[in-house]
Design a protein that fits this description.
1 helix, mainly beta, 5-stranded antiparallel sheet, globular, 176 residues, 40% strand, 4% helix
Length: 176
């Protein structure tokens, strides 16, 4: 958390993975964020942010999208400006979905996967997907509005056997 009980304000979520072996279809992983209304924090997302989109108010933006994992380090990046998010939203869940165009892939099939959640220069969370290696999509972190204290976060590593389209509807389901 950042200083003086203001909670988490502006975070960057970055994703990395190694490219597919030569001759194999590209591995394409995608960051996905679901924004949930205060009135229904575990229902359908008020909006989803993923490749080719951003939140309507511009507070959540995917500003780097990779379709191959080629690059140096973290290849996809999403910024969440939680401190600017309207009061009608109480929950944001971030996850990763694997595009299935090259056949059925799981996190265990893709080398060197990793995600980092960072506020400024402070790592809030790093994760390597080892605990969800058989999944095709996974949630990673949940941000919740903590009243006057701002936003808090908690890791929620949870795997799903779902394609990206279905994952968008499962993303906000209650976590036990």
């Amino acid at each position: 958390m950042s200083g003086l009980n203001k909670g988490v304000g502006r975070v960057e979520v970055t994703l990395k993975w190694d490219p597919a072996p030569a001759g194999a279809p590209a591995h394409d992983l995608d960051l996905v964020a679901g924004v949930f209304a205060t009135a229904d924090p575990h229902g359908a997302p008020a909006h989803l942010v993923h490749f080719g989109s951003r939140s309507p108010d511009g507070t959540i933006t995917l500003h780097r999208d990779s379709r191959t994992g080629q690059g140096f380090g973290y290849d996809e990046a999403m910024t969440l400006e939680l401190d600017r998010l309207d009061a009608r939203y109480a929950r944001v869940v971030v996850g990763v979905a694997i595009q299935q165009g090259g056949g059925r892939l799981t996190f265990g099939d893709i080398a060197n996967t990793g995600i980092r959640v960072r506020e400024g220069y402070t790592d809030l969370l790093t994760h390597d997907f080892a605990d969800v290696s058989g999944a095709r999509a996974a949630t990673v972190v949940e941000f919740t509005r903590a009243g006057a204290d701002g936003w808090s976060y908690r890791p929620i590593s949870r795997g799903f056997d779902a394609d990206p389209q279905d994952f968008g509807t499962l993303l906000g389901s209650p976590v036990s």
